[in-house]
């Protein structure tokens, strides 16, 4: 057994999917540890310290959300939720509980592999940029956190304090979808009926100032119905 392989914990009770995902990941050089219940997943998680977890939500002895809530008390390991639940509320809940990504069944093998690579990359990125990262830099956009100044293609752009706070918050989590609730909580500290509207108005202004044309992706991706995601420096 090659010890340099990334170790992935797969928690999935559907035999077909379990076997398919295991074969797919192993064929692509990952080591896979398989669990079919929450209890087994929890046990293997603590004994194996995996590099990434792929988590089904509907498990025989409980909900994958509970597993997620439990491990997030003490671990920042990337978690990809794999689920047949397609509604936004479930996606939002999983992301708010700390899932790094959400893949809806049925899914393609190329897609799952891409999400796995991306989750690992983001994880390494956030770990490495945490130390001395007083600056965000991507595609001509520079955010200087110490000076609270923003430059786009060399020109300074003036943002209101709220706009700047949103931008700084999103850019501190590059590549990760931040849900509306998470952004609102971080910026305003509370969530009321008008908050979502306020956020949307501010986001529209931020995007305009960054030079985004309607419908065009520019630095920030709008994940419809879920939240916003700042591009990582190695994207697009
Ligand atoms: Ca299931």
Descriptive account of the structure:
The chain has 236 residues and is an alpha/beta fold. The chain has eight helices and 14 strands. The strands form four sheets. The chain has a five-stranded parallel sheet with strand order 2-1-3-6-7, with helices on both faces. A four-stranded antiparallel sheet has the order 8-9-10-11, covered by helices on one side. The protein has a three-stranded antiparallel sheet with strand order 12-14-13. The protein starts with 6 loop residues before the first strand and ends in a 6-residue tail after the last strand. Residues 13-14, 56, 58-59 line the site of calcium ion (CA). Calcium ion binds at residues 13-14, 56, 58-59.
Please give the structural blueprint.
Blueprint: E1 7-11, H1 15-27, E2 31-35, H2 38-48, E3 52-56, E4 58-59, E5 62-63, H3 64-72, E6 79-83, H4 88-96, E7 101-104, H5 109-129, E8 135-138, E9 141-144, E10 149-152, E11 155-157, H6 161-171, E12 177-179, H7 180-188, H8 195-209, E13 220-223, E14 227-230
Parallel strand pairs: 1-2, 1-3, 3-6, 6-7
Antiparallel strand pairs: 4-5, 8-9, 9-10, 10-11, 12-14, 13-14
Helix pairs in contact: 6-8
Calcium ion (CA) binds at residues 13-14, 56, 58-59.
